[in-house]
Design a protein that fits this description.
This protein is mainly α. It has 9 helices and no strands. The chain is 69% helix and 0% strand. Helix 8 packs antiparallel against helix 9.
Amino acid sequence: MFRPPFLARVAAGAAVYALEETRRLPTAAMNFPITAISQLLQTTMHMQQFVTSLALKGDAVFERLSNSPVEQPEWATFDEDLGDEQSSGDDVTTAGRTSRFDLYAVDESSESSTNGHIAPVQTITVPEITESEPAEQPASAEEQATDEQAEIAEPEIAARYDYANMTLAQLRARLRMLTLDDLTVLLDYEQQTRARAPFVTMLTNRIATVRAQ
């Protein structure tokens, strides 16, 4: 098999590489801005990290040269430290203000109040407090209305249709089955017991309609 010389092979490979790169040129051109921005951000980040590390090393050098104790910052003060400082300050202030004259004044005031004798202790008798029985509460309006209803005798027509537990819709359904006397009795019974406005109005209108017929 015939093998071309080395330079010919290199030239053929360069031509193929150039052709492949030419085909990939549109895609590379589209991705070039993104790639360039990412590389720029990476380079900037590395530079910031490098500068920060140099600054830290410089701080360490200056600390070794100065050999000064590190002061505690104000925000690192705890409540216990403040309590000790305040208590010690109060003690010093009290000790500074107290003198021999103050002690003599205190002793003199105590002697003048008791005249050199022990003051008698006065006992105070506290009267016993007895709980009063709660007053009977008056009956509510609902209980009074219930008692009045119990006193009024339920008519026969109301007991037949269970008028006490009847709803407004049930009463409307039974109006045509009731006579004029039944309607009058139910109206009187309603006014004497519960006096519900919708029931009174419906019975009154039905009585007027029956009389008009």
